[in-house]
From TrEMBL, chain A:
It comes from Leptospira ryugenii. Pfam families: ETF (PF01012). One of its GO terms (biological process) is carboxylic acid catabolic process. This is Electron transfer flavoprotein subunit beta. InterPro entries: ETF_a/b_N (IPR014730), ETF_b (IPR012255), ETF_beta_N (IPR033948), Rossmann-like_a/b/a_fold (IPR014729). The electron transfer flavoprotein serves as a specific electron acceptor for other dehydrogenases. It transfers the electrons to the main respiratory chain via ETF-ubiquinone oxidoreductase (ETF dehydrogenase).
UniProtKB/TrEMBL annotation, chain B:
It comes from the Bacteria. The electron transfer flavoprotein serves as a specific electron acceptor for other dehydrogenases. It transfers the electrons to the main respiratory chain via ETF-ubiquinone oxidoreductase (ETF dehydrogenase). FAD binds at residues 207, 232-233, 246-250, 263-270, 284. GO terms for biological process: fatty acid beta-oxidation using acyl-CoA dehydrogenase. This is Electron transfer flavoprotein subunit alpha. The keyword Transmembrane helix does not apply. InterPro entries: DHS-like_NAD/FAD-binding_dom (IPR029035), ETF_a/b_N (IPR014730), ETF_a/FixB (IPR001308), ETF_alpha_N (IPR033947), ETF_asu_C (IPR014731), Rossmann-like_a/b/a_fold (IPR014729). Residues 4-193 form the Electron transfer flavoprotein alpha/beta-subunit N-terminal domain. Belongs to the ETF alpha-subunit/FixB family. CDD domains: ETF_alpha (cd01715). Binds 1 FAD per dimer. It comes from Leptospira ryugenii. SUPFAM superfamilies: Adenine nucleotide alpha hydrolases-like, DHS-like NAD/FAD-binding domain. Pfam families: ETF, ETF_alpha.
Amino acid sequence: MKIVVLVKQVPDTETSIKPGDKSINESGVKWIISPYDEFAIEEGIRIREKSGGEVIAVSLGPDRVVEALRTAYAMGVDRAVHVKVDDYVTFDSTYTSELLANLIKAENADLVIGGRQSIDTDSSQVVIQIAERMNVPHVAMALKLEFDGKKVTATREIEGGTEVVETSLPLAVTAQKGLNEPRYPSLKGIMSAKKKPVEVKKPEELGATASKLEVVSLEPPPPRVAGRKLEAGDAQGFASQLVKALREEAKVI
Amino acid sequence: MADVLVVSELKDGELKKISRELTSAARKIADAIGGKVHTVVIAASADKYAADLKAVGADAIITANLGDFNPEGYANGIAAIIQEKKPAVVLIPHSSQGKEYSARVAIKVNAGIVADAVGLSVDGGKVVAKKPIYSGKAYANFKISSDIQIFTVRANSQEVSQKEGAGSVEASSASAGEVRLKSLSKDLSGGNKVQLADASIIVSGGRGIKGPENWPLLQDLADTLGAALGASRATVDAGWISHSHQVGQTGKTVSPNCYIACGISGAIQHLAGMGSSKYIVAINKDGDAPIFKVATYGVVADLFEVVPALTSEFKKVLG
């Protein structure tokens, strides 16, 4: 099976973000692989370990994303492709999905796996858009995947519970927490990853059209209403104060 | 045309609150750009929903008989309606279903899309969508340049306002068409009575609840308030509750009107999932817990004493 895993590099949650005019100030930002994409990489490797084939990690972004591809190599993928875009179009899911779908079509992949969302934009769009562009089915929020030839049985998270679905390859999947436990790259893997080749593709080679999104501005988050600690002598006192505050002041209950 | 089309959502045959929120938001946009509001109801008949949707601004209520949820089926049907009505703006709930079919719809109708918008305004005839990025550490404003602009919108982010629309009802011939994902079975036993994603009140527990045997304490308060039950990552990782309850970076992102955090210290990953809640109540013994930095109301006390007192006090005033 030929598997493409999608790897997005995002700022670590703990990192502080300084919004500029149209993009963030990247100095001092610590970059990591978006956590849900780690489940995607792990699943791709596990499927190959079980049934053979090839796992290709693909990351779109500026030069720094090569680090994420090296991590994917260290975990065990077979090939890495860097779709090199320098400006801030990664917010635009339709542009991103077009570039990636064109690459994946040319690779003739049977399976595409990405995280259920990236933790920088939380949009949950790109993988399913790729499925639509490839004209293949998708399984979102996968918790379990089983293959029997071209037939796929999957368990996925839905609102309020889980669902078992059946479909066929080729297929796109978004990985949810619970699908697997991503492995740590081994020291040997990290050392050999440094020497492995990373293919570079440019947007013009992938036949990209123009972006459909304009970043108007970035701004800091809205300030929170100044909080206050309630003072009371006992639990009953706290309870009646809180009920009063929520009903009369905040008017939310 | 400068019409606005809303896809509404139902739950157990009833209109979800977000359907009214999005129709209200659509009314404001349509008034600003000079168009009509179409609200699509995915049901065989609109009789039950028409009056509600008319009251919040729908000019046309369009039924689409697409059957049980299937991401491809919904995408096929909704794309067909968009192609027929040619709206300038499409609003879709950023729900678990909405996230799935909106992605396919955007490609089918060749539209740009902004997902998880929390603010919608109009500038120069185009919608400007505001959305949190980087775990809520910044907000970005986007415009879409394509003829059709699609936005998925977070629950509880739009006001419901009463402004009547024409309220005509029409049946669409859109169908689910061919789908390649077959549902074999569903298991809804581990889920929440109230869905986290669209709950307007959430009662959430962290490590401070000490063990799974204490969830009933929080569930009682949640039931009293008609709230959803949330959980921190620590409690899910400890196996005290299923992952479907988890709020935060590797759980669900929520924006309720009121978030009651019980025994939650407030790790940055948790704040990323609930930091946009309108009002935050923190109940924690540790007065230095980071959750108090974002809490509207802080209660430094033992949750095992305060939560039951709160439940009985609410029972009294809510009858």
